[in-house]
Amino acid sequence: MRVIHEMKLVGRLASGADEWSCPTCGRRIALRRPPDPDLTVLEPGDESAVHVGVIEPGPTSTAAVDKYGLGPVQEIPRPSKREPERTPAPTPDDADRAWLAALGIAWDGGDEAA
Q1: pTM of the model
Q2: Is residue 77 part of a domain?
Q3: In this predicted structure, what is the pLDDT of residue 106?
Q4: 103 domain-assigned
Q5: Cβ(41)–Cβ(22) under 8 Å?
Q6: What is the pLDDT of residue 65?
Q7: 8 within domain boundaries
Q8: Of 46, 51, 61, 105, which is least packed with CB atoms within 10 Å of its CB?
Q9: Tell me, what's the pLDDT at 30?
Q10: What's the rounded Cα separation, in Å, for the pair 62 and 49?
Q11: Beta pairing class for 28-32 and 18-21
Q12: Do the domain assignments include residue 14?
């Protein structure tokens, strides 16, 4: 069973997005409503927990979670925290070096392109 945290609406940012915060783990998000919806994670908090937005916490919200499980929670894919793999720059072969030398460019910084 996944842990469920209730996020609370805490204010509106200068951008017009709503700021939501989880008092349990410290997760904070900026949520912009339609017509240009957007979600920006400000503080990740516990990324393994399911976060449910609750405007008025209390027995009603807890009862809904208990009765229906996760309720109308939409899993939002999160970008990976891993750095993307970088492909090393290709090294020119002899034909490329000859072409560069014909243009007066020395690939390795030597004098062969004179």
Answers
A1: 0.50
A2: no
A3: 81
A4: no
A5: no
A6: 58
A7: yes
A8: 105
A9: 92
A10: 16
A11: antiparallel
A12: yes
Look at residue 40 in the predicted model and tell me its pLDDT. 92
- Contacts of residue 97, defined as CB under 8 A and 6 or more positions apart, other chains included, come to 107
User: Which three-class secondary structure state does DSSP give residue 13?
Assistant: coil
The candidate with the shortest Cα–Cα distance to 8, out of 83, 58, 47, is 58
CB 58 within 8 A of CB 8: no
Domain carrying residue 27: 4-68
Q: Encoding tokens for residue 59? A: 């027995």
Q: What is the pLDDT of residue 114?
A: 47
- Strand partners of residue 39: 31
Q: In what order do the strands lie in the sheet with 18-21?
A: 38-43, 28-32, 18-21, 4-12, 50-54
What pLDDT does 19 receive?
92
Total number of domains in the chain: 1
Length of the chain as a residue count: 114
Residues forming beta bridges with residue 40, ordered by sequence position: 30
Residues of the chain with pLDDT under 50: 71-74, 113-114
**Which residue has tokens 């609406």?**
9
